[in-house]
Amino acid sequence: MRKTYEPDSQFVERLEWQLASEYRRTKRMKSIGKIAVPRRMVALTLLIGALLTGVAAIKAAETIKDSWRKKIEVARVETDVKLKTAQLGATREMALRAEKLVSQGLIRSEEYQALKLGVMKADLDLKKSLLNLDEVKASGVVARDELSAPLVGDRDFVTERLKIEKQKTELDIELLAIHLKRFQQLFEKAMVPGAEVDRIQAERAALRGAIDKIQERLELRKRFVAGDITVQEVEIGDRMTVAERSLHVAQSRVETLKEELNRLQALEAKGMVSSTEVKLLQYGLEAAQAELQQAALEMDVLGKIK
To answer: What residue spans of the chain are helical by DSSP H?
Structure first.
């Protein structure tokens, strides 16, 4: 039994006082010749009254508990909204300054385009924070992102947030396209190694895969809301989607780190880099390989669930 439903000492003392008072009152009624209420009825009445009093107290306590939790969570999300609003304002101001500078030929147009994308991302961050605030006010609990979360007031906050996440990822791809163009220009002038260009291309490919996974999650959520799949099925499907993405990302990291490790080891042999740098990269490779194994294991386990 939860401690919430266990009577405290004050409750027990009050119940004892009520029983004693009722006993004295019943005795007085008998002494003056009034109709006495049967003891069983008295006991039953007192028991029901005590239980109702206890239930009322419990309900009041739960209401208070939910109230303070909701108040704290609303305050937390409201603070996040303020921060996101300030961030959007600052990003817009930077973009306006950049627009003037690019018109004067003081900065490249790519820098201005990157800032414009930053404004769009900041706007999406604010919209997501406002979504969280609406959900907390409606539900009284922390905003939930799992695909099996129920609708809140007939509103599907999970789907709305997933759509925002998809839009942000698309903006990230556009931003990487700007960086890729710039790095390719620098590579042609031998100002950066080809590995940097390959890294950005790999990141773009990973983000495209991430968009596909978000779309898969949207489809799973749609089927769950429609009642086509159960909570367990949507959870397994969601975790499989996440595991597949983790596997892809980990594979990409392992391949990239292996190439970089080979390059550093060759430089170490020539005395151009320290052994510490090589060891740090080796640790990073081992961590990526561990993540790869974990993702593969999770996919294997989930794939065997029927």
So the answer is: 9-31, 39-103, 109-139, 157-188, 194-225, 231-269, 275-303
Range of the domain at 293: 230-306
- State the angle between helix axes of 109-139 and 157-188 in degrees (0 to 180), rounded to the nearest 10: 160
**If 0-12 CB within 10 Å is exposed, 13-18 middle and 19+ buried, where does residue 48 land?**
exposed
- Distance between CA atoms of 69 and 71, rounded to whole angstroms? 5
Q: pLDDT of 167-178, one tens digit each?
A: 999 999 999 999
Q: Which of 85, 146, 162 is nearest to 119 (CA)?
A: 85
Helices (H), 104-193: 109-139, 157-188
Q: Is 72 exposed, middle or buried (0-12, 13-18, 19+ CB in 10 A)?
A: exposed
Q: Are residues 162 and 189 in the same domain?
A: yes
Instruction: Say how many CA atoms lie within 13 Å of 183 toward its Cβ.
Output: 16
Threshold 0.90, pTM exceeds: no
